[in-house]
Amino acid sequence: MLEVVIARKGPAETLRARKKRETRERVAAIAARLFKTRGYERVRMRDIANAADVSEQTLYNYFPTKEHLIFDLDQEFERRLVDVVRQRGPQRTIAQAVDREALRFLGELLESMDTPTGIPASAALGVAVRRVWIDINARAADRLADALREDDREPHSPASASIAARSIVALFAVTMEQVGLAAQSGKSARSVRRELTATIERATTVGTLALGHRRAKRH
């Protein structure tokens, strides 16, 4: 499961939004516990709803399929990528912000690399999960492209924003995938960190559209 710490930034939440987020997080935490104790394939959506004391319809409103519960922080993942652009410091380029956040993301993933999830490789690498993962990445790339087009310091055309956004999302997505595969194969966290750190730094330096060579405008 996407078990990483994601800092919340931006405007304060409304009471309604906070309650929805808290319910979603509670349901996801209960699902994670059930997957770990019973095994992913033995847990039904009905079991999760009962354990969380919500109706099945409420559960499906938050998570359309059981596969979506594997990526329980998908909305926060999307927000995190957008904040890389919108919340970066005034003297920091997008490339620098991506590099810094991707390395932080890698560190968070490595901390939970050996945590058992109860999700077998057959499910984690299955077609249904991959379909959900592709959809999550596509939605994140669309939102990130909007942020790139709206950025006044490093403006992007619609086409360049879409290409850069997909490249940035791919950097984070592949990092997550590689950590997961490394955990399944028994690789050490140290070797994974060394390999992926070098990959991230190369990607942000020589990335799509020479992203690493853009400079923030001075005001």
Task: Describe the fold and architecture.
It contains nine helices and no strands. The chain is an all-alpha fold and 219 residues long. Residues 1-10 have low confidence and may be disordered. The chain is globular and about 50 Å long. Helix 1 (15-38) crosses helix 2. The chain folds into two domains: 15-66, Arc Repressor Mutant, subunit A; 71-213. Helix content is 65%, strand content 0%.
Give the arrangement of secondary structure elements:
Blueprint: H1 15-38, H2 45-52, H3 56-62, H4 74-86, H5 94-111, H6 121-124, H7 127-150, H8 158-185, H9 189-205
Helix pairs in contact: 1-2, 2-3, 4-7, 5-8, 5-9, 7-8, 8-9
Please describe the structure with a list of short key phrases separated by commas or semicolons.
219 residues, globular, 9 helices, mainly alpha, 2 domains, 0% strand, Arc Repressor Mutant, subunit A, single chain
Series of H and E elements: HHHHHHHHH
The count of domains is 2
Question: How many strands, what sense, and barrel or not for the largest sheet?
Answer: none
- DSSP summary, beta strand count: 0
The number of helical runs is 9
Radius of gyration: 18 Å
Beta content comes to: under 5%
Q: What is the first-to-last residue Cα distance?
A: 42 Å
Indicate the structural class: mainly alpha
| Overall average pLDDT | 84
Low-pLDDT parts are 1-10
Principal-axis shape: globular
Tell me the helix content.
Answer: 55-70%
